[in-house]
Design goal:
This protein is α+β, with helices and mostly antiparallel strands. It has 2 domains: 65-152, no CATH class; 156-365, MetI-like fold. It has helices at 2-30, 33-41, 45-62, 64-67, 155-191, 193-208, 211-220, 228-258, 262-269, 274-282, 287-310, 322-328, 332-337, 345-365, and strands at 88-90, 94-104, 111-128, 134-139.
């Protein structure tokens, strides 16, 4: 009798599991392709975490005037090379920072700053600065959480403002390279013949040059009299011109497969025009691949701008970026006496790693029918 009860219970459980599996299959069958991608993507915790981190970086970059404690170009040589300060909290004084006391080095005559616990400056939230700009967090006394540079400018504020350039140059550069790569890659694969040969030879010529010397040559070609904004857009265009070849070849390979499929051949037989076939039958099949490639290409753009600015061929002061900040920290004396000036390398590493994790997650989600 007990065996019968066990067998009956097991069969009931198996039937219940089978019904749930069938219901899940029916639900999945009714989902659109976009919903299937999102359904698989949200299961990747690393991809979700990377996306949240990147959204946070872009929010802070776009709201730099609010999140940065000071303006990026506020100069005060009396507090140059101040080491990073720590925030403190007590019940009596709340959140505060300690003051600074300075002594002069007997050999270098440089001011050496130390914490003075006798001076307490409370942290003030949502206050106006001298430019009548609302700041999230500031203080009546010196508050340099990441220290200051050789001109007494707050390093944290310069990192936040520099994120505007370093993060947006990746987005704009990838957008331009997507247009070039998608259009030329589709033309190369669809039309073939001399069009294909011409585009592929151009890609091979670009790929034959080493990237760093090519960046340096094109960066040096920018007129020295250009303003910071003109230089910024010039760097963006340079990075876009260099990086579109890889995407064009990948799109070409996809189009070569899609153009011989039944629906594309049927559209040609029905008299559909080239533009209709490309936009309705060929490019949609490449969208998921283009999204993944663009996500993985943004870190390359950011590193390209950083490398150009580090070499002195990119963004020029007074405009700031992560590359400009690292260029200012490339002297040996910085490593010995002012190591906090290397802190701009940390957001570069975090953003690049986050984009790579996000790209891997999108690559898996873009093929929801596998695995």
């Amino acid at each position: 009798m007990s065996n019968y009860i066990k067998t009956h219970a097991i069969s009931k459980v198996s039937e219940s599991l089978t019904d749930k599996i069938e219901d899940a299959r029916v639900d999945i069958g009714h989902l659109s392709y976009r919903k299937l991608i999102w359904r698989r993507f949200r299961k990747n915790r690393m991809g979700i975490m990377a996306g949240v981190i990147l959204i946070g970086f872009y929010i802070i970059a776009l709201g730099a005037d609010f999140f940065a404690p000071y303006h990026f170009n506020d100069i005060n040589v009396l507090v140059r090379h101040v080491p990073p300060q720590a925030l403190h909290y007590t019940w009596a004084d709340g959140l505060h920072v300690y003051g600074l006391k300075s002594t002069q080095h007997v050999e270098t005559l440089e001011l050496i700053f130390e914490t003075d616990a006798t001076q307490i400056y409370p942290v003030i939230f949502f206050s106006y600065d001298a430019r009548n700009q609302v700041r999230l967090m500031t203080s009546e006394g010196p508050m340099f959480l990441f220290g200051t540079d050789r001109m007494g400018r707050d390093l944290l504020s310069r990192i936040i403002y520099g994120a505007r350039v370093s993060l947006t140059v990746g987005i704009i550069g990838v957008f331009l390279s997507l247009i070039l790569g998608s259009v030329l890659g589709t033309m190369s694969g669809y039309f073939g013949g001399w069009t294909d040969h011409l585009i592929q030879r151009g890609i091979e010529i670009l790929a034959a040059f080493p990237p760093i010397p090519l960046w340096m040559a094109l960066g040096a070609a920018l007129p020295p009299g250009w303003s910071s904004i003109q230089t910024y857009f010039g760097i963006t265009i340079i990075l876009s011109i260099i990086s579109w070849g890889g995407l064009a070849r990948e799109v070409r390979g996809k189009v070569l497969v899609f153009r011989d499929l039944d629906y594309a051949v049927a559209a040609q037989s029905a008299g559909a025009g080239h533009w209709y076939i490309i936009t309705r039958h060929l490019l949609p099949g490449c969208y998921s691949h283009i999204i993944v490639v663009s996500t993985l290409a943004i870190p390359g753009m950011i590193l390209g701008e950083t490398a150009l600015s580090f070499l002195g061929l990119g963004i020029r002061p007074p405009m700031t970026s992560w590359g400009v900040l690292l260029e200012e920290a490339q002297r040996v004396t910085v490593l010995l006496h002012y190591p906090w000036l290397l802190l701009p390398a940390i957001p570069v590493l975090i953003v690049v790693i986050a984009f790579n994790f996000l790209g891997d997650a999108l690559r898996d989600a873009a093929d929801p029918y596998s695995g």
